Amino acid sequence: MSSISRPSAAASAHAETIRFEAADGHPLEGTLTTGPGHGPLALISAATAVKRGFYQKFAESLVTEHGFRAALTYDYRGTGGSVSQDFNPRHISMADWGMKDFPAALARLELVAPGHRVVGVGQSYGGQALGLGNVSERFERYLMVATISGYWRNLGGGFKLYALMNLVANPVAFLVGHVPSGMGLGSGLPGGVFSDWTRWCNRPDYFFSEEPRFDAKNLFASVRTPILAIGATDDPWGTPAAREAIMRHFTNAPVETRWLDPQEAGGPIGHLDFFRSRFRETLWPEAIGWLKGEAQA
């Protein structure tokens, strides 16, 4: 394992690029931000097709303003800094992100302070990863932002989104092995990942009928970690139906849900923008306070 240091935007934090491996040997890359605080360690898991750098300001805020001991952001295999020429992008599964990369990132974060309390933050797919990863008992709390089932009929994009995925992007992935950025679906994705994503989004039960490949129903039911699920009322994908379709599978976890109003927040939130630094003073403090276990007014 090697690391490459880089200066942090905040003087009281140290951020470095780190490299580590999943259990199957796939190399992964992340940014580890550490500080002098005694608060929890935080694992931040990204949405589909979003690179880890999008979350760096939030990670630095955890460490510099809220006393977290460390925060780790990382790229799933086949994306961002976790692309490897030794692994065929056609053979990378979207399930690998949650079942292999998520536990590997958690294990790397725990090396910072073994036995220290750990919390998680997951946006969209990053919330699904808690269910798929089979390591939920190691998290004290887990914040989910815009975590939904991707079944297309529950999403605001409707048939236009269905057509983009099935009639445009999926054939491209089949032909060239990946979906390039610039197709309206975020950053580039491995072909195998996009094949999974398209198939799941075509199903009313999303990935909950993938047996015997994996048993998502039992994996999700095994989670007992307290969850706060945040959604925005202006999220075109994160409809109440889409959120309920995924959250109902956390049958044994205490789940609290909240809806954010963009007018009260001071601007549009949508599916991704909760983590933009313009919400540092409005949306972040309450969510971070929940992660720390602070009582809410």
Would you write up a description of this structure?
With 297 residues, this protein is α/β, with parallel strands linked by helices. It has a single domain, classed as Rossmann fold, CATH 3.40.50. Helices cover 31% and strands 21% of the residues. It contains nine helices and eleven strands. The protein has helices at 56-65, 94-110, 125-132, 158-176, 191-201, 216-221, 240-247, 262-265, 284-292, and strands spanning 3-6, 14-21, 27-34, 39-45, 68-74, 118-123, 141-145, 178-179, 189-190, 227-232, 255-260. It has a nine-stranded mixed β-sheet with strand order 1-2-3-5-4-6-7-10-11, sandwiched between helices. A two-stranded antiparallel sheet has the order 8-9. Strand 10 (227-232), helix 7 (240-247) and strand 11 (255-260) form a beta-alpha-beta unit. It is globular and about 50 Å long. The relative contact order is 0.14. The model is unreliable at 1-11 (pLDDT under 50).
In summary, what is this structure?
The strands form 2 sheets. Strands 1-2-3-5-4-6-7-10-11 form a 9-stranded mixed β-sheet, sandwiched between helices. The chain contains 9 helices and 11 strands.
Secondary structure layout plus pairing:
Elements: E1 3-6, E2 14-21, E3 27-34, E4 39-45, H1 56-65, E5 68-74, H2 94-110, E6 118-123, H3 125-132, E7 141-145, H4 158-176, E8 178-179, E9 189-190, H5 191-201, H6 216-221, E10 227-232, H7 240-247, E11 255-260, H8 262-265, H9 284-292
Parallel strand pairs: 4-5, 4-6, 6-7, 7-10, 10-11
Antiparallel strand pairs: 1-2, 2-3, 3-5, 8-9
Helix pairs in contact: 2-3, 4-5
